[in-house]
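Working notes for the structural subgroup meeting. M.R. asked for a predicted model of this chain before we commit to crystallization trials. I am recording the input and output together here so anyone reviewing the notebook later can reproduce the run.

Input as submitted:
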Amino acid sequence: MLYTVIKKNLYQDSVSLMLLTNHLSAVEGVTQVQVMMGTPANKDIFKSSGLYTEELEEANPSDLCIVVDTDDESVVENVVEETDSYLNSQTEASQQSTIPTVRTWEMAENKLPTADVALISIAGEHATAEANKALDRGLNVFMFSDNVPVEDELQLKTRAQEEGLIVMGPDCGTGILDGVPMAFANVVEKGNIGIVGASGTGIQEVSSIIGRNGSGVSQAIGTGGRDLSSEIGAITTIRGLQVLDQDPETDVITYISKPPAPAVREKVVEVFKTLSKPVVAIFMGDKPREAHDNVHYTWTLEDTARKALELANGSNHYSCNFIEDKDLQKIKENNQQRYIKGYFCGGTLANEAAMVIEDALKLDASHEHPEGMMLQYEGHEVVDLGDDAYTQGRAHPMIDPTLRVEKVEEAAADDETAVILLDNVIGYGAHDDMAGVFAPVIEKAKQQAASEGKAFVAIASVTGTEEDPQVFQDQVDKLKAAGVIVTESNAQATKLAVEMVNYLNGENSEVENIDNAEVENDKVQALISNKPRVINIGLRNFADAIMEHGGDVVQYQWAPIAGGNKRLAKILEKLK
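Returned structure, recorded in token form:
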């Protein structure tokens, strides 16, 4: 039975409520629970999940709504107590923090008059308005928020370009500005390799490999996943490349692209030719071209990092060898088990895995990716669970592993699954122990399979460094202890999965090796020349990471104006 509790005028950000929902799901007697603000969009999510009640009709956008599905009405009281305790602990943690907290833009400017960037991580429907307010104040914008209309992105980026600023995002997951991590990022030493990337996890994978091999990153400028679309035309990409070309701390420029619009790709290549520094570029999904001028093209993210290391520091050799897993012979005896199931929290890592599998196994797969399905061919499946289709009403899988755990459990029980392929992206903003979640899941699934006379292979990569809060080697050790094969990179993990499938099919285990083919703006330049001074609008843990690494930060405790009433909010905006 469904029970509803509405707490009036208690605004909380959406990510906090998603994490609270996960916490409440563990309360004894709860069949299902959802906690969200009472916005029209959230009410639709309640409906689609089968948790809508008539009481929700009375809820306003500023009201916190709890719906519990339980057979025992007394459980509702426990859920409310847990909710109050959770929110109180969040408040106490905020009060104990040394980071200044404000509630208006004006207060933020007074607290940090030298601010040069706004980091925005609120719901996409509100993000554009706050980004424009940041531009009004002469601030660059780092927009973590997703679900922002493409026309809004074009307006923001065009305006920023005209005003000598830069907009990184929307859906910009990662950045490093003068050694300070922005949003989801890893702890990487300062160095002479600069990165511009349309992919957050792509930046993380490349920067982590660079860091683990004794080098470092000067800057990492995120662009957002749509920047290479025909609608946007690479506005932030071009600005970022030009800025790094003028950065005295950058000797090699690395560019990471999501699949680009063909005409925009050529536009970016022409910009490469104008730069004074060597460029290493990966256009995900495209075979690398021959090197030309100062530009080197690569096939995988690992290739990209290794080529940048070679250009920055001299030669860098590596190899990936086939591993004879003890379960392969048992799998080979079952003629059904011949497929790879990949479940990813990193969109670019999922794209890379799909690309390598398609190429190596010569699959004629569709390049349309509805709802994050990067590869679906016969029994092979690679899914980006960070796609918008999976993050409506739930936190990103780098934060919330629930859906990915379900997918892994289903794949392990599937008679066709030979290999389960996973990424594990650590660093600031990510789950505090993702390996600790998946290790027992894999271990239990392997034990269950063994009890049925079956087996499967689990392969993972860990994107991160030893200095990350979760600690790279700790994550590796936990996965290995559960029987997971852990490789040095996502590319190596995928190639190994392919080798295993070829082995199971009685084919040569070698995988084809694709070798690497051989505006000046004062405000943006100033942004990367000093530790960033940030007004953080949204997720508080982003502010903690900035402060820890020497950046100045003010936490703007944002809430929607007019209690979330969109019509009234628009009227108030026009009156300002």
